Amino acid sequence: MKVTLAMKPAAKWFIPIEAESIVPKNFLSGTDLRVWRGNRELRLDEVFSVSVEGDADRAEDVEVVLSGDTFRLKRVGEYLDAGKITVLGGIGMHCGNFMSGGTIEIHGNADGWLGREMAGGTIVCRGDAADYCASGYRGGRKGMKGGTVEVFGRAGDFLAESLAGGTVIVHGDAGDMTGAEMRGGTLVVHGDCSRPAANMKDGSCYVYGTARGMIPTFKKIGTVQHDGRTLIRFSGDLANRGKGNLFVKGYEYLD
Amino acid sequence: MIVKDAVCPFCGCLCDDIEVEVEEGRVVAVTNACELGTTKFMGEKRMKNPILRVGDEWKDITYDEAVKYAADMLLAAERPLLYGWSGTHGEAQCVGVHMAELIHGVIDNTSSVCHGPSILAIQEVGHPGCTLGVVKNRADLVIYWGSNPIDAHPRHLSRYTRYAEGFFLENAFRDRKVIVVDVRKTESANIADEFIKIRPGGDYAVLSALRAIVQGKADTIPRTVAGVTREQLVRVANLCKSAKFGAVYFGLGLTMTQGKYKNIRNAIELVSELSRHTKFTISAMRGHYNVYGSNEVNTWMTGYPFGIDFSRGIAFYNPGETTAVDILARKECDAALIVGSDPAAHFPRKCLEHLAEIPVVQLDPYPNATTAFCNVQIPVAVTGIDAEGTAYRMDGVPIRTRRVLSSDYLSDEEVLARMYALMQEARER
Lengths: 255, 429
Fold this sequence. Notes:
The complex is a heterodimer.
Chain A: E1 2-7, E2 17-18, E3 34-37, E4 40-43, H1 44-47, E5 48-53, E6 63-67, E7 73-74, E8 84-87, E9 103-106, E10 122-125, E11 148-151, E12 167-170, E13 183-189, E14 193-194, E15 202-214, E16 219-226, E17 229-236, E18 244-253
Parallel strand pairs in A: 1-6, 2-7, 6-8, 8-9, 9-10, 10-11, 11-12, 12-13, 13-15, 14-15, 15-18
Antiparallel strand pairs in A: 1-5, 2-3, 3-4, 16-17, 17-18
Chain B: E1 2-6, E2 18-23, E3 26-31, H1 35-41, E4 51-54, E5 57-60, H2 63-76, E6 80-84, H3 90-103, E7 106-109, H4 116-125, H5 132-138, E8 141-145, H6 149-152, H7 154-160, H8 172-175, E9 177-182, H9 187-190, E10 194-197, H10 203-214, E11 224-225, E12 228-229, H11 230-242, E13 245-250, H12 252-255, H13 261-274, E14 279-284, H14 291-302, E15 308-309, E16 316-317, H15 324-329, E17 335-339, H16 343-346, H17 349-357, E18 360-363, E19 376-378, E20 389-392, E21 398-401, H18 412-428
Parallel strand pairs in B: 6-7, 6-17, 8-9, 8-13, 9-10, 13-14, 17-18, 18-19
Antiparallel strand pairs in B: 1-2, 2-3, 4-5, 4-19, 7-15, 11-12, 15-16, 20-21
Helix pairs in contact in B: 2-18, 3-14, 3-18, 4-13, 10-11, 10-13
């Protein structure tokens, strides 16, 4: 079954819409769903032109396709456990919160908290991801615990903050405090980033470019070969009695 | 008439030993207060009555008309923003929270642009703090990090640290060491025993290095960290470890620079590390006299300290999304009520562009920068001068501010209560 949701133009286009009801399994029982624009509850068809092709008995066979100006659509794919969501443009904050299975593919950019606290499944973002991609929630001890997030563009600040499991791959550069408070999992940044793995406890962080503002409390171990690259291996964060691994191609201290 | 033991409604020190001389309904002299507090007590040129913008003109309106305008504006909005709250008393803040819940709006206070990051850090790793009195009587080492008390909290030094007597210190001025950490040599650095000059953006690295040094891992630290030599860091770490009681006070130099709440988290974790060797505490140098109170009121009423979004009827909290600067910069609200703050003087231009496009009502005794963005401004009594109510000092101690003179102005609480009553009526219909 393929559900296509095309965003309708709205007078108050600037008010964000919370649409945690947009997950494949909800469409097995029809399209009578609700979303919220600010403090107003609206029917799905007041916000989208809805069309459904084919039918399905299980969420795995449902694909939801979102089109139009969806960059202010928040919480799409929250608690996703099966099926697929395809976003043709950009997507708003908290896409794929807490997801445990299934796939989300975003062709444009993703706003903050993409895949926050996810436990499983796959997110692919073809554009850039904003701050707190694959991170945790405020005050939380653990961020993402499993699954895979792959961003083909750049990522913002606090990428994979408190990462506890799973894999995060960013093909472009990442921002400041990349992998802060990491306690598990694997983070790979193909480009440059700033202050990677600050206060890390455990896990592995790879930076194939340059680590700027390198945290001074990582101990240099030596060089290693990884995927045909020569990387410098550090252990830390000593300040946090951490036993994590940080691999960088190059690094600069703020000295 | 002289009013003794008045409470100064300027900064988070909330000094409660002020003497105010009042003659013919005006403050004519202030004793004990600092320059900042004196200026606030002596303030004149208040707005006389509520005003409404009509085209390019201001029209005088009554309180009833102004209150009705605000209530209608907020009831019609899909995502109203209720911002400010740090420059008013707790009783008014309570009405604000009830109002936000009733109209399903977003309520945020000024801590989202000052010590919000401190609260985020505290939510991650806790707050080993204490009251100002404990520091005054016990601390033999005080560190001001990214704060400049001589200019911003002038009496903090004389009442609690550098120039204060201490019950458990024989000669407080001699026995108490003061360390100042900043990116430039401030006035406060001039009276410190040790000054650490950090390259801008380097606080986090220096804090990490100090934590490692306190653990005995100095040999892994590079020769200089953000412009600070390893020798100085080792000396400072030893000073801290050999103190009997240390207190760290940090300001916006730490909360609002690169890394923000991670800086504070690192500072708190340094304090935890030092507390394995001696007694150490850490506290924020809060700005507005009742910003702490606003966090308290919000927390006991909603569970969250600032940036609370009631759009869906329940409290949702996510600074960076539900905080005023972010909402305005992203144009995510369609009406704003401003109470006890002046966002137009402090927010980025992008935020003000949206503020200019939506209806805005402000409660403030004086014309200010935000007046230019208002549709309606309602003058109110000043808490601590012609209104009274509860405020929280920077260390979390509630102090009831006093009324030193009477006036015809309504207090924030009275104006907000009238607004809230109209909203309740409308919602019941």
